[in-house]
């Protein structure tokens, strides 16, 4: 897969997906601040400091960012994903990925575009499957999206996630084989 990738959202908005670089770190960190505050999809309780953020989103990973096509230099990042081996060594052919979409850009097809791009790229990189270890059970939008993209729910970890109100929800493990898929 050659980046940048040009695509359109459901409403026709032109989008560009590109491999994230140094200039994308701060826009991604600011978007992640919003996602962490929501508390509905990632385990962090506070925004990671710069080094923790780099470790979580960049080191040892391929990170892809989404912007409106022909963006201004200070344009808002619309979403992003990272792709990495879930485990090292003998099991490194199983990928893991994480996704975020800015609140104002949800329900427009950006999550689907990021997910479909990740699956294509993961297969191209030689991964044999993708696993999501921690899909919050109450994040129905994410679970529906991943099922539409061919993921299966393998099981759940009861009470794995503490919510902002102090109660707990399960974490769902989702999986998709890339063998034989187009």
Topology, please?
Layout: E1 5-8, E2 14-19, H1 25-38, H2 50-57, E3 62-68, E4 79-85, E5 94-101, H3 110-124, E6 129-136, H4 140-148, E7 152-162, E8 168-177
**Class derived from helix and strand content:** alpha+beta
- Contiguous low-pLDDT stretches (5 residues minimum) are none
Number of helices: 4
**What is the chain-wise order of helices and strands?**
EEHHEEEHEHEE
Q: Give the CA-CA distance, first to last residue.
A: 14 Å
Q: What is the count of β-strands? A: 8
Give helix % range. Answer: 25-40%
Shape: globular
| Strand order across the largest sheet | 1-2-3-4-5-6-8-7
What's the gyration radius in Å? 16 Å
CATH architecture of the domain at 5-130: 3-Layer(aba) Sandwich
Strand percentage? 25-35%
Query: How is the CATH topology of the domain at 5-130 named?
Result: Aminopeptidase
> What can be said about the biggest beta sheet?
8 strands, mixed
Q: What is the mean predicted local confidence, pLDDT?
A: 95
What is the quaternary state of this protein? single chain
State the name of the first-level CATH class of the domain at 5-130.
Answer: Alpha Beta
How would you name the CATH homologous superfamily of the domain at 5-130?
A: Gcn5-related N-acetyltransferase (GNAT)
């Amino acid at each position: 897969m050659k980046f940048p990738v040009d695509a359109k959202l459901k409403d026709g908005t032109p989008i560009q997906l590109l491999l994230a670089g140094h200039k994308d770190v701060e826009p991604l960190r600011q978007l992640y601040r919003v996602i962490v505050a929501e508390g509905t999809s990632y385990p962090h309780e506070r925004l990671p400091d710069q080094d923790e953020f780099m470790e979580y989103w960049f080191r040892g990973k391929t990170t892809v960012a989404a912007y409106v096509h022909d963006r201004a230099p200070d344009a808002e990042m619309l979403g992003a994903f990272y792709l990495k081996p879930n485990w090292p060594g003998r099991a490194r052919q199983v990928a893991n990925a994480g996704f975020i979409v800015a609140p104002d850009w949800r329900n427009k097809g950006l999550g689907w575009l990021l997910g479909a791009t990740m699956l294509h790229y993961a297969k191209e990189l030689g991964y044999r499957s993708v696993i999501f270890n921690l899909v919050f059970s109450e994040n129905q939008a994410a679970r529906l999206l991943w099922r539409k993209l061919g993921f299966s729910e393998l099981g759940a970890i009861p009470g794995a996630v503490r919510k902002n109100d102090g109660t707990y929800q399960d974490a769902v493990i989702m999986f998709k084989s890339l063998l034989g898929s187009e």
